[in-house]
Design brief:
Elements (H helix, E strand, L loop, with lengths): L1 H26 L4 E2 L1 E4 L18 E9 L7 E3 L3 E2 H7 L2 H10 L3 E7 L6 H4 L3 H14 L4 E5 L8 H20 L5 E9 L2 E2 L1 H12 L4 E8 L12 H22 L6 H6 L1 E5 L2 E2 L6 E2 L1 H14 L3 E2 L34 H5 L42 E2 L4 E4 L2 E5 L3 E2 L15 E6 L31 E4 L2 E5 L9 H4 L7 E3 L2 H7 L7
Parallel strand pairs: 1-14, 2-3, 3-6, 6-7, 7-8, 8-10, 10-11, 11-14
Antiparallel strand pairs: 3-4, 4-5, 8-9, 12-13, 15-18, 16-17, 17-19, 20-21, 21-22
Length: about 500
């Protein structure tokens, strides 16, 4: 009898120890909330101006292969990294979010276009392509989104796993972190056969996965009759948990139940999904949040922060997915508020953007014309809509005509402020060339002249083009940013295209 008692105590002790170590391991990886942002979607989403605390951590999407050079990364094939920096001001906006204590990750892949590993077959160039993105944006976390045709391409997944694992090891050797999440499609029954195989390939390549983020969306026929979006998402999470348990055991990595939940991320598509019958409501969001909190899910996301708004009355067909609104009634409540509530995402601000230590009163930054990308603000200059200026180390953009309004006025707020803070002056910034229009480039505007669509004139050292037939109405309103005026101001870029070789200063 004593033998059985002792044996029982040993089993109980071992079980307790496993539970204790599992809980400690899970606690070492805090849960995070990070919403996806579609970088190239229009209208542009201002992630650098977070709508709430839950929107301070973002996953910028998607880096894919350039359409002409498969080993060169691009943003959705629309922008090179440099192009996104100049045309979208992406680097500055990332720096601004980090100034506010936010976190930035980048997602590679997605459903559209070609992921780098599917287009680039040179291992060395592929590794360099990933590295160029990670280095440029000073990333400590990336997301590998594999879906569609890429998920069936085991050869490209192997290339991707090899390249990213090598980068992760390089950074670990240098004392730097690179957290890697694998994002995969899912059904209520769990990962697809191809998705489960992708996880195995990543582990076999030696990649230390932060976790597997499942896309709890677009279930279509895999959702059972009467099964709600919430029920389908919970079923998918529980099935994935079981699958990962088996996968890690097969890879000789035995993880406890709590640690495995930390290895799972959930990403619903808020509101109307691509499948007409699949609609994820705010009630579903609350239920999924509660499930995630109970289980200790490692990551909660949503697709996408761009869409976290109720559609306006001019958007007629809510069953057609919009890039800019959810398609469901939100009543002023944000999905990011519900899904991200009380999920503790800790800041991993890049070192170069870390706030200064020591005194809380910093001396004003002295702006240097030699390193400022735009003219330094002057109280004597008049600025018009979209004009940019530099003031005390930051770049500002004018909302309308303004003069003698200091950009960082602490009393100007919201709609009353004539300036929008874009972000800090970056170490790589240099002055942008200013176009100087020689006298006589275009005729001076005259109130007595009849102008037709396409006619160009000079006014107050700026060039304007007529949008329709006009007489007597001058371009002043266009300078102040009015959209109703007959005149459109030509930008520096437009003028340089129209007049090649025009003097720049």
């Amino acid at each position: 009898m004593l033998v059985f008692v002792v044996a029982g105590l040993v089993v109980a002790g071992v079980s307790y120890w496993h539970s204790y170590t599992d809980a400690r391991a899970a606690a070492a990886s805090p849960s995070v909330f990070a919403g996806y942002v579609d970088v190239t979607a229009t209208p542009r989403y201002a992630f650098e101006q977070p709508v709430n605390e839950n929107a301070k951590s973002v996953v910028l999407s998607f880096i894919v292969a350039d359409a002409k050079d498969g080993c060169t990364p691009s943003w959705g094939t629309f922008y090179s990294l440099d192009g996104a920096g100049s045309e979208l001001d992406l680097d500055r906006r990332i720096a601004r979010l980090r100034q506010l204590g936010g976190n930035v990750a980048v997602s590679f892949g997605g459903l559209s276009n070609k992921e780098l590993a599917t287009a680039c077959t040179d291992d060395s160039k592929l590794k360099d392509a990933y590295s160029s993105v990670i280095d440029r944006y000073e990333l400590t976390s990336i997301d590998l989104d594999i879906e569609g045709a890429a998920l069936a391409d085991a050869t490209s997944i192997a290339r991707q796993a090899k390249a990213v694992a090598a980068l992760q090891k390089d950074r670990a050797a240098a004392g730097e972190q690179l957290s890697v999440w694998l994002t995969l499609p899912v059904a209520p029954t769990g990962l697809t056969t191809e998705g489960a195989a992708a996880v195995k390939q990543m582990l076999a390549a030696g990649l230390d996965l932060a976790g597997v983020n499942i896309m709890t969306m677009d279930y279509s026929d895999s959702r059972l009759p009467g099964q709600s979006m919430l029920q389908a998402s919970i079923a998918a999470a529980e099935a994935t948990h079981s699958q990962l348990d088996q996968t890690y055991r097969a890879a000789n990595q035995e993880l406890g139940a709590q640690t495995l939940w930390r290895k799972i991320g959930l990403t619903p598509m808020i509101g109307q999904n691509d499948i007409v019958a699949d609609v994820f409501s705010l009630a579903d969001a609350q239920g999924l949040h509660d499930f995630a909190a109970e289980k200790g899910i490692g990551r909660m996301s949503l697709w996408s922060l761009n869409r976290d708004a109720e559609c306006g009355p001019n958007y007629p067909t809510l069953t057609v997915v919009s890039d800019a609104c959810s398609g469901v009634s939100q009543g002023g409540t944000l999905f990011s508020t519900v899904l991200g509530a009380s999920i503790d995402g800790k800041s991993t601000t890049a070192p170069s953007q870390a706030p200064p230590t020591g005194s809380t009163t910093a001396a004003p930054v002295v702006d240097d014309p030699a390193t400022s990308p735009y003219p330094i603000w002057s109280p004597n200059a008049a600025y018009v809509k979209d004009d940019r200026t530099v003031w005390q180390g930051n770049v500002y953009e004018a909302k309308w005509w303004t003069k003698n309004n200091v950009p960082n006025d602490p009393l100007a707020a919201g709609t009353t402020a004539p300036w929008t803070l874009i972000g800090p002056v970056l170490p790589s910034d240099r002055p942008k060339p200013e176009v100087t229009l020689p006298a006589g480039t275009y005729p001076q505007w005259s109130a007595s002249t009849v102008y037709r669509k396409g006619d160009r004139v000079m006014f107050d050292q700026h060039a304007f083009e007529a949008k329709w037939w006009v007489q007597t109405q001058g371009p002043e309103a266009a300078l102040q940013g009015s959209a109703d005026t007959a005149w459109e101001r030509l930008s520096n870029e437009e003028i340089m295209k129209l007049i090649p070789g025009i003097p720049q200063s």
